[in-house]
Design a protein that fits this description.
alpha+beta, BirA Bifunctional Protein, domain 2, 5-stranded mixed sheet, globular
Length: 634
Amino acid sequence: MSPLEELRHSASHVLATAILRLWPDAKLDIGPPTETGFYYDIDLEHKFTADDLVKIEAEMKKIADENQPFLRKEVSRDEATEIIKARGQERYKLGRLADIPADEKISFYQNGEFIDLCAGTHVRYSSKLKAFKLLSIAGAYHRGDEKNKQLQRIYGTAFPTKDELAAYLEQLEQAKLRDHRKLGKDLKLFVIDEDVGQGLILWTPRGSIIRQELQDFIGGELRKQGYSQVFTPHIGKLELYKTSGHFPYYKESQFSPVFENESLAKVIHEGCSCAEAFSRLEAVSARLASQVNQRTGRETITPDRVKPDDQLLDGFMLKPMNCPHHIKIFASQPHSYRDLPVRLAEFGTVYRWEQSGELNGLTRVRGFTQDDAHLFCTEEQVAAEVLGCLALVKIVLSTLGMADYRVRVGLRDPDSNKYTGDSANWDKAEHACREAAKTLGVPFTEEPGEAAFYGPKIDFVIKDVIGREWQLGTVQVDYNLPVRFDLSYIGADNQAHRPVMIHRAPFGSMERFCGVLIEHFGGDFPAWLAPEQVRIVTISDKLNDHAYGVLNRLKAEGLRASVDEHSDKLGAKIRRGELDKVPYTLVIGQKEADASSVSVRSRARGDEGVMTVEAYVEKLKTEVSTKALPAKKV
C-alpha cells in the first residue's frame, strides 16, 4: 500500500473501533481504503444519522489521541476462527476468512481493544491520524449482491495534513454546486422518471439541444475523416452476441434474453400428440428456466439442457454493444484491399443491466448512446488509423476546454482467462497502442487487466476544473472479433486476408459525457452549446415590439434566443437570466431602441457596453461558429 492508502486504511479501523465503543452490538463486514478515502460496512439495527457521524468522529479523535499502536498478528485458521467468535463477529468475518486461500497467511491487526481480520498494512500509531472527516452514510448490499442483506456504509476521508483535507472538502463543496443531477433539474435539461425506469434518461428540449450540438460537432469532424454513417436496431439475436463474445463475457451486466413464447394452446392447435406436446413444452420450460437462471445467477437449469437443434424459441437481447452490428454491415458485401479502411460510425444506443445502487444521474445509466465507430483496415494501416482516432479525441477535448488529461493504456492480464484470441495478435495490438500513445506528448501509464476481452485500449482520463478525473474517450485495437466473425477482404495477391478492427468513441457515452460537461462548466455552457444563447429584456413593456425585432434577427441567423416578457423590474429580469445561465442578456431601453442597438451583458465577463444589433449578431455568430470558450473577466 502507498502511505496515503495506509493512512486511510488505518482510519477505517479507527472508525470501526469508535463504532463498537458506541454500539457494542454492531456487526462489522469490511473497511477498505478507497481512491478518495475509506469506508466501513456495518450491520446494526440502529439507523445512523448525521448527528451520529459527529459522535463517531469525536470518538475517533479520542482514539487517535490515545496513540494506539497498530500491531500485526499472524495466526492459524483455527485461531482466526476463535478470535472472530470470541468477539461475536462471526456473521460476516467468518465468510471473509473463508475467502482467504489455503496457502496464504492469515493476519489480524489490533489497535487498542479492537482487533480485525486484515492483511494490512497500517500506520504505526493512531496519532498519525491528524486530518480525517466522516462524510456520508449509504446503503450497501453485503458483497455487492442485492440478494444479500443491505448494510450501512459510513464513508470518510483522511489526509496527511489539515490543509490537504481542507482543500479536498472545498472540492466536495464545489462538486455539490456543480452536481449535474441538481443542475439538470434546475436548468430543465433531462428527466429520470420512475414510471419509465431507473437509469433511463428522458432528454428535454433544452437538454436535447446540447446533445444535438455535440453530435453535429463530431459529425462534421467524421465527414472530414471519411466516415460513413450507419444505423442499427436496438436488439439482436442472442447468437450474435455469443459469437462476438459479449455474451457470456459481460453476461452479468446485460439485460436477460427474451424468447418467443409458445403456449399450450398453440401446441395443441398444431395437432401434436400428448407425448409430443409435453416434449415440446419441456423444451420451452428449460429455455425459460435458463432465462431466469441468467438473471438470478443460479445454475439449477442451464442452456445445455436444450438440444442444439431445438428451434422452438429464438432468443433476442437488447444490444450491449454496437460492434457486432457494424461487423455484419461490413460482412454484407465483399471488400478489396482498395476499399480499406472502411470507417462506420453510429450514434448507437446500447443497454446494460446496472445494479440500482450503482446508478447515478447521467454518469451511470442503463440505456446510453455511444458516439461509436468501427474501422476495418489492413494490418499495415493500423498505426495511421489509430493516430487518426487519437487526433479526433484531442480535437474534442481541446474544443471543450478539457486540455488537462492523462492517457491510460489498458493491457491484458497474462494470468487471467477472460481474454479471447491468439497471443501473437494480442502482442501486435498492444504494440500498436503503446506506439500510438507515445505520439500524444503526454505521460501515459500501462495498466494490465484493463483491456477489453477482445483487445487493448487507449483511454483518455480528463481532469475537470475542480480536479476530479473522468474516463471519457477510448480507442481499441482488435484482432479477435474479425476472427470470431470470419471477416475477410481480397488482398493485392488476390487471396483472402483478415482485416483488423479499431473501435473508437471520443465522447464514450453521450449521457456520461453530457453529465461531465454539465459539472465541468457548472451549467455555464459556452454560447455554441447553450440551450438558450441570448435572453432579451426591456426596461418597459412598450419596448417589447423592438425586442421581438431583435429576436427575429437573431433567429434568422439560427441563433437561440427568447424575450423575457415578465412585468418584473429590470433587475429581476437580469437576475432570472443569470439563474438560467444564459450566456448573454441584451438590455433594451428607449435609447437602445432609437439607435437600433442593445446593451450587452455577458455571464462570463459582465457589462460589455452598447453595440448595434448587427454588430452584436456578427460577434455572436463568430463566437458560435468558432466554438469559442468565453474568456473570464480579469
